[in-house]
Structures are given as structure tokens and as C-alpha cells.
Amino acid sequence: MKRKAKPPSAILTADWHVRGDRPICRTDDYMETQGGKIDFILNLSEKHHCPILIAGDVGHRPTWGDKLLNWFIDELSPSRFNIITVVGQHDLPYHLLDKWEEAGVGVLSKSMDNFEVINKPTRIEGAVILPFHYSNNIIKLEQETTDKTVALLHTMVIKSQKEKLWHDQVAHSAKWYLRKFPCYDLIVTGDNHQSFSVEYEGRWLVNCGSLTRMSANQIDHKPSVYLWYAEDNSIERVYLPIENDVISREHIDVADERDGRIESFVNRLKETGELGLSYEDNMKLFFKSNRTRKRVMEKVWGSME
Question: Which domains does the chain have, with CATH numbers?
Fold first, then answer.
């Protein structure tokens, strides 16, 4: 979609999962990687003079710690434009919505002028944002408005029923939401770490996807944000810069090898008829055949007492 002469009304994003440790699949300086992505989005906001809408899971864990909070505050401090967000399950202690103010996002919302967790309809230029946090169900609007309406929600949405993340996944599709809630010109969702957009009768659902690649199966993921133009309700995808060769499968290969050893051991027991031994004897034989950490062995034996 070609860029418009008029500047966008908002930048759409989700699932930042800001964290102080490095995902097991990453081989790079992950703090630097996160900072680079955030800086890119903030510069985009500065360039277009528009707010940033985050559809939840700003943090990877509810409790951030002072070091990570200070780092993030320093990252966001130069921004002159608002960051507006709802909360996802990763933002919530015990996944309880009424505890969001105790979490890292609560600290940020209280301490920063340009970071806001919204709990009521919030206006930006040309539009009104309706917040739906994790565990909140999206609702139909009772009153019409001349402004464009945006639902900002954190819930699992899939692109289509043919594109489930796993075989028996239960989730509504993007078109289901667009058909069910025609009162919204734009629905912005988070939780599904894939990036996609779906249009239906001139209205859009945008699932922004994760800010970074956090697992080996995301090696083909292209982190993106979307520019949204309220005037004609159009969108434009903007890809974030990424580094090549920073995703490793080594931990998966190790796990596969371990699982293969266990499967081989079980098959050997079946072949030799040794499964007739007691459970305790089987466990002794397993530990003798497989390197197992002492703490794990102690827990197993403790559970049998």
C-alpha cells in the first residue's frame, strides 16, 4: 500500500515482551536488540508526530526489577508522543487484571508522562481508542461517533481457521471479529506473535506480532509495526530492522537427542520384557542409563516416599 501524503494517526504494535535476560535461541546482545527495535519505533513516531498503540504484553514478566525499569524509562524518555497500551497476561501478577498497578507496567504508567495504560475510551486525533485488557471481552458500542473507532485488545486471534498455531487450537479468526463487531473501524490485537492484517468491508483487524524473534520457530518472522491512517482507514506495514544468523536451534537439537535416548530406552525395555519390573526398579535403570541431575533424582525419589 502506498504511503499517504497525510501523516498517519497512530503506530500499531504489540507483544514487546521487554526482558532483562536473553531468550535461549538468541546468540546476540539481546538488550541491544530490544533497544534498537524500540528506538526505531520511537523515531517513526517522532517522524510522523503520532502516538504508539501497544496491544498488550509490554513486558515478558509482571515484575521487571529496578535495572530493567530504569533501562526502559531511559529508552522512552526522548519520546514526545504518547505510548498507549492495554495489558496482556505477561504484564499481570498471577494473570489477575486487578493487580496490574503492582506490576512493571503499573510503575511505568505512574512514573512516566508519555506511557499510559488506558482503562476508558481515549481520544487521539480523528479517533477514539476502546481498551480491552487480557480477560476482558470485546463489546459492541452502543453509541455512534463521527470519529473512527479503534478496539485495542489482548486476546488470541488467528488469521483464519486454516492457519491455526496447533492442530486443535480454539480461537476466533480475524474475519469472525470483523463480522461480529462492525462498530469498529479498526481492531488491533496482541498475543499471537505472528504478524498479519485482514480487511473486511473496508474495516481492518491488525495483529501486530512480536517485537523480536524469541523462539527458534520464529526464524522466518519479520517483526513489523503498522501505520494507521484514520482519514481513510488504511494501513501500511513497516518492517523493523533485523540481524541475520542470530537465531540458534542448538537447544532444540539437544532436547531432540535427549528425547531420542529416552524413547530408545523405553523401546529397549519393551523388547526385553523388563517393563515387568517395579516402577522403582525401572527408575533406577533409567537413571543408570541416562545422565540425570542430582536435584531431579532427589525430587523423583522424594515423591515416591
Answer: 10-239 (3.60.21.10), 250-304 (no CATH)
